[in-house]
Amino acid sequence: MTRVISVISGKGGVGKTTVTSNIGVSLSQQGEDVLIIDGNFSGANVAQHFGLGFNDVSLNHVLEGEAYITQAVAKHPAGVSVLPASILEFNADAENLKHSLVDFLGEKDFVLIDAAAGVGEEVEAAIEASDEVLLVSKPELPALTNTLGAKKLAEQLERDVVGLVLNQVRGEKSEVEEEDVLDLVGEEIIGRVPDHEHVREGIALREPVASYKPNSRASKAIEDVAFRVKGEEVPDRGLQEKIVMHFNEFNPL
Ligand SMILES: Nc1ncnc2c1ncn2[C@@H]1O[C@H](COP(=O)(O)OP(=O)(O)O)[C@@H](O)[C@H]1O
Ligand SMILES: [Mg+2]
């Protein structure tokens, strides 16, 4: 059974695209067959995270009936399939998006949809095309409040919530404490991804950190999220893995 999950946050800039791309890579490293779809037409970024060219056939062409979906899907060396969008004038049509997924249902293990910010029609279309949503937020009050708004929209549309991923965690005192996060959003925190330069390096190099530096602290945190998305226990990291992770902190590019 294919699980179609849209990644939503309410607020922009909290790491939806980063988390979606990396969870996709991580799931694929764990043997799952994954398709990542850029459902953010007003701010399409997935292609850049994977180093795909701008002129390729995109989801926009598919939804406008100008190309077959197979022409728009690119296979990334990290193992995931990617369906990029381009920033073109586009009328987000939930039915169209849902319809375009039909070919993948039963074929892929996971389809991850990187949604737009806010709770407008683009986000609604992404949620409607999915069965479940994954919430992403920074551990800051404004972001968490908007995440609650996005969760409410998913509930109105009767979609299941997989959980909440806290991204760009710095461990600073100013961050909202976990108990308060739970009180506010009312969802289980299924991962804490550190704010780390390796993530930014990956973005600059146009390769998700999960494939660019798979043993880094950020990638391991993402890997944990991938296990939890699958409903599996996170494996206990042995001493050797912890040492490798530690040395990765100091590894020059
Ligand atoms: N875990 C992280 N560590 C460091 N920087 C991050 C992390 N996650 C996101 N960022 C930074 O935040 C920016 C916005 O992330 P992005 O995934 O594009 O957010 P969104 O899709 O929610 O708008 C990235 O370009 C990157 O610079
Ligand atoms: Mg984005």
Strand order of the largest sheet: 3-4-2-5-1-6-7-8
Helical fraction equals 40-55%
Q: How many helical elements?
A: 12
Tell me, what's the shape?
globular
Give the C-level CATH assignment.
Alpha Beta
Please tally the β strands and state the result: 8
| Straight-line distance between termini | 39 Å
Biggest beta-sheet profile: 8 strands, mixed
What ligands are attached or bound here?
adenosine-5'-diphosphate, magnesium ion
Strand content: 15-25%
CATH architecture classification name: 3-Layer(aba) Sandwich
| Helix vs. strand class | alpha/beta
> What would the CATH topology be?
Rossmann fold
Order of helices and strands: EHEHHHEEHEHEHEHEHHHH
For this entry, what is the oligomeric state of its chains? single chain
CATH superfamily: P-loop containing nucleotide triphosphate hydrolases
Low-confidence stretches: none
- What would you report as the Rg, rounded to the nearest angstrom? 17 Å
What would the average pLDDT be, to the nearest integer? 91
How many individual domains? 1
Describe this structure in words.
This protein has 253 residues and is α/β, with parallel strands linked by helices. It has a single domain (3-248), classed as P-loop containing nucleotide triphosphate hydrolases (Rossmann fold, 3-Layer(aba) Sandwich). Helix content is 40%, strand content 18%. It has helices at 16-29, 46-49, 59-63, 69-72, 94-101, 121-128, 141-156, 178-185, 197-204, 209-212, 217-229, 239-248; strands at residues 3-8, 34-39, 74-75, 81-83, 110-115, 132-137, 160-169, 189-194. A hairpin with a 5-residue loop joins strand 3 and strand 4 (81-83). The longest helix has 16 residues, at 141-156. The relative contact order is 0.18. It binds adenosine-5'-diphosphate and magnesium ion.
